[in-house]
Write a structure and sequence with these properties.
single chain; 8 helices; six-stranded mixed sheet; 6 strands; 248 residues; 39% helix; alpha/beta
Length: 248
């Protein structure tokens, strides 16, 4: 039996302000900190005992992981950080208010930019100071896709699924239980692969902040169970909160 736990970072300051965030490195809100701590308590109560963890290069995910591990008394375990776990890059939408973008471009177009599989938001020019090519975290990375000016979920899947196969899955085989703290769209990419969700249906998957999502596999790595560590009413409310970010 193997257990993979995915957790989207706790609420960030730009989640609270309803802004497109992407690779912009924003911090957690007080609510986000509390979400992460509560997730750690629930994982400990559930008997999870991680030996290895992964996160992105963005501090909202890094801090979420730290709070979770602190609550579990597991801050000593090895943690691997990778750009491949970063959020989908939202291009020129980053920093823009979601509802204002709906007013400007229409709900259908913004939904495609937010949730569709293969539609990319408008690209950030290479000479824009917000471009990853100017960021010390990414400036020396040579891998394809490491300095995007925009991404669709298709691109996010293209960087996360190979990483799942080559790194995360192999660590899971060794350690039996692995924790990944990342972002809504990088986790949607993993989940799409694990549950074989179609390109069309993935648009309906909304990942709430700060709620652990537990996947159980048998010895042949067949998925046998997946569940969020939250009661149904709370989970429904939080998923609707994500889905309704562009609604008036």
């Amino acid at each position: 039996m193997y257990k993979l736990v995915l957790i989207r970072h706790g609420q960030s300051t730009w989640n609270e302000a309803n802004l497109f965030t992407g690779w912009t490195d924003v911090d957690l809100t007080e609510r986000g900190v509390n979400e992460a701590k509560e997730a750690g308590k629930l994982l400990k109560e559930a008997g999870l005992n991680f030996k290895y963890a992964y996160t992105s290069l963005l501090k909202r995910a890094i801090k979420t992981l730290n709070y979770v591990l602190e609550e579990m008394d597991l801050m000593w375990i090895p943690v691997e950080k990778s750009w491949r776990l970063n959020e989908k890059h939202y291009g020129n939408l980053q920093g823009m208010n979601k509802k204002e973008m709906v007013e400007k471009f229409g709900a259908e177009q913004v939904l495609l930019w937010r949730r569709s599989y293969n539609v990319r938001p408008p690209e950030i020019p290479l000479n824009d100071p917000r471009h990853p090519a100017t960021d010390p975290r990414y400036i020396n990375l040579k891998e394809e896709g490491a300095q995007p000016g925009t991404e669709a979920l298709l691109d996010t899947v293209g960087r996360i699924v190979p990483y799942w196969k080559s790194d995360i899955k192999e660590k899971l085989k060794t350690h039996k239980e692995v924790l990944v703290a990342a972002h809504g769209n990088s986790l949607r990419g993993i989940i799409k692969h694990l549950k074989n969700i179609s390109d069309e249906d993935i648009i309906n998957l909304n990942i709430p902040t700060g709620i652990a999502y537990v996947f159980e596999f048998d010895n042949d790595f067949n998925l046998i169970k997946d569940e969020f560590l939250a009661d149904k009413e709370t989970l429904k409310k939080l998923m609707e909160e994500v889905a309704n970010q562009t609604k008036k």
